[in-house]
Design brief:
The chain has 4 helices and 22 strands. By secondary structure, it is an alpha+beta fold. Strands 3, 4, 7, 8, 9, 12, 15, 16 and 17 form a 9-stranded mixed sheet that branches. A 5-stranded antiparallel sheet has the order 18-19-20-21-22. A 4-stranded mixed sheet has the order 2-1-6-13, with no helix packed on it. The radius of gyration is 22 Å and the shape is globular.
């Protein structure tokens, strides 16, 4: 009898440990590093949002209806070690049932993303370009991490029921934080669903996700192609190939003649060398057109 009780107890503990080890959260935002790029939503738990993927994060806990720490980032195949991070690619958006569109300004809510005591705050005006820590790959090529997401008003009062959205990407650096080991993924959206006061149900959410936000997002592969083109066309300014990196919010390349070429907020900039200080050269789309990209 005693042996039977020990067996049952051990079996129960094994189940608990297995469940804890395989816990992925909902949704499981899964990524795979393969053939030089990060693939998004490899577990197919995202939803279609126009040409993008969105992961819906439901705030369903009755005790903390405006806070969620169960959703998980998981990854595999990240075999170069380094630090896995996320980067904010848009300001916070809020669905308007009156206008039937995603508002880009004029509301008081903000998103706070926390991971290991480090917080990033995204509002309708600020947050684009912020980077946050996900995990440090020291002995494994896979990871699982659970940041905490919180929606609140800027005065920390309760937010309205509804849907909120932000676009982010996943990327990775070496231990110095300067060299990009894993190029940024395509941007994808996080959609936060709040129905604490029974004012915005799943049907309302489904209607909101039929509408794609009218925002312009960075395409880092296209930027790299443009930088490659510039290096081939303007050798006197950009005398050698260089790796792209993030510098003070710019996606940039720097050269041994002290010139740097970069992009930020949809514009092209240079600095250093013959350019002197930071100089704006106009919309990046005009340069894409000139380069045939």
């Amino acid at each position: 009898m005693h042996r039977f009780i020990l067996f049952i107890t051990g079996f129960f503990l094994l189940l608990c440990n297995t469940a804890a080890f395989t816990h992925e959260g909902e949704p499981n935002m899964a990524f795979l590093w393969r053939d030089g790029k990060i693939e998004v939503d490899t577990m197919r738990q995202g939803r279609t949002l126009g040409n993008h993927t969105t992961f819906v994060i439901n705030f369903t806990d009755s005790l903390t209806p405006y806070r969620m720490g169960d959703a998980g980032f998981t990854g595999s195949g990240f075999d170069q070690g380094g630090i896995i991070s996320y980067q904010i690619e848009s300001t916070l958006l809020k669905w308007s049932e009156t206008d039937l569109q995603w508002l880009q300004e004029g509301f008081d809510e903000q998103l706070v993303i926390s991971r290991l005591s480090v917080e990033n705050t995204v509002t309708d005006k600020t947050g684009t370009g912020l980077q946050g820590f996900i995990t440090n790959l020291t002995t494994s090529s896979s990871f699982e991490a659970h940041p905490v997401f919180k929606i609140q008003k800027t005065d920390e009062s309760l937010p309205d029921d509804g849907a909120y959205m932000v676009f982010i990407n996943i990327l990775g650096f070496d231990e110095t934080g300067e060299t990009i080991l894993y190029k940024p993924s395509v941007p994808f959206a996080l959609t936060f669903h709040i129905n604490a006061q029974a004012g915005f149900d799943k049907l309302a959410l489904s209607e909101a996700l039929k509408v794609t936000p009218e925002i312009e997002l960075n395409d880092y592969n296209r930027m790299d192609a443009l930088f490659d083109w510039a290096e081939s066309q303007f050798i006197e300014l950009f005398p050698h190939t260089a790796g792209s990196r993030f510098l003070f919010g710019y996606y940039a390349r720097c050269y041994n003649n002290t010139v740097c070429l970069g992009s930020k907020d949809g514009k092209i900039y240079t600095t250093g060398g013959v350019f002197g200080g930071i100089t704006e050269h106009g919309p990046i789309n005009a340069f894409y057109e000139s380069a045939g990209l």
